[in-house]
Every structure is written in structure tokens, then in C-alpha cells.
Design a protein that fits this description.
The protein contains 9 helices and no strands. The N terminus and C terminus are likely disordered. By secondary structure, it is mainly alpha-helical. The protein has one domain. It holds the Pfam family DUF1631. This is DUF1631 domain-containing protein. InterPro entries: DUF1631 (IPR012434).
Amino acid sequence: MNKQSGIHYLREHREAASTRPVPAEVARIRDTVVAGLGDLLQGAFDAVDDSLFELANNARSNNEQNRYFEAMREIRIKRKGVERHFQNTVAQFFANPPHAGQLPSTEASPQASADTLSLVGNDDLEEQVAFNAMTTKAKAHFQGPLLQLQARFTEIYPDATEQEPVNPMAPEHLCSAFTEAIQALDIQIRERLILLKQFDRYVISNLGMLLDEANRILIQAGVIPNFRYHGKKSQSQK
């Protein structure tokens, strides 16, 4: 997937975050989320390994079988590095969370898609479609907890406003972090799609428990304990 602009943004964003301190409740959420996502990602990678092994066993030629075994080897060798990269990126989102819409969008307008379709490789397009489907489904499925969490995080971070809310746990940020992390893998599109499929199945689809825990921690800290779909008040209103 050609997401170089997004990857460059993520790297610059991490550098800008540096060692910015975060409130105690945010640090607690960060540690819980990073550890939880790490556990979920273990399951995703195990499932990828199983899928590739099954494909290799059912391959119709030696070349096809070797391709899957080589992909398995590549992922096994670099797996820990990918996991570490993903978790570090997620942790930095809590130090300096992107504003909503600040990450380059993977969703193009219909006109833009038509105009640029010939410039996008089939592999990139397939991965982009998978990425969009994953994030769109997650935002719809977890809409309630995500809205609450965005309001609470926006209340905490001084640079956030109702017009420019933040949520370091937004699905699009987590998916972008994973997409960046797997750039290190020298594998073909079918294997990349398997990775995204299992990331969706084992990580994104199980975000609910982490979103609920994050909301619980912030409620206990007194951050918008009674959520009523309102944003951060201006200083003059406080």
C-alpha cells in the first residue's frame, strides 16, 4: 500500500512528541492499551502463521509453496520488530495525539478515485480497500465508546478543542500504525492482505474492551463522568 505520506507523518509526529509528559490517567490508559494491543497482536501473528502454513500445504506447485514458506520465514524473523514498532507508535499517540482528520485520509472522493485510479497499482488499491473497510467497520461498530472517549481525551489535552478533537485510540490511527510497521516486511500483496485480515479479526475487532477500560479510567478520574455529547468548553465558559 502506498502510504508514504502517512508514514512520514507518523514518524514526524513521534519526533515532535519526544518526552512530552502526560497526565497520570492518560499514562495508565497508554500502558494498558499498549500491553493489551500487544497481546492481541500476538494472536493475529499466530493466525497469520497458521494461514500461510495451510496455504503452503495446499499449494498447487513448488513455486507457490515456496512463496508461502518464504513469507512465513520473513514474518517470523521480523515479527518482534513489527510488534515493537507498532506498540511504540501507539504509545507516542498518547504523548501527542493527532487531531481528528490530521492523518492523511485513505478515503478518496469518488471523483478523485476515478481520476487517479490509473495511477494506483492494483496491489496498492487492494490494500487501500482493505484498510478503508477495516477502519470504517470499526468506527461504526464502536461508535458509542469512541465518541465518549474522544470527548474525554479532548477535555484532557490542552491543544484539543471541540472543533479539533483528539483520540489516540481512534481505529484509523491504530490501523495506520500497523500499516507503517509492516512496511518492513518483504512480502507480496496476498500475504499483506492476510496480515490485515488477521489484524482486523484479532486486534481491531476486539478494541471494545480497551475502549471501555479507557472510558472507565477517565470516568473515575472525573473526566466528563456523565457523557451528554458535548465537547470541550472554551476558557470563557469555564
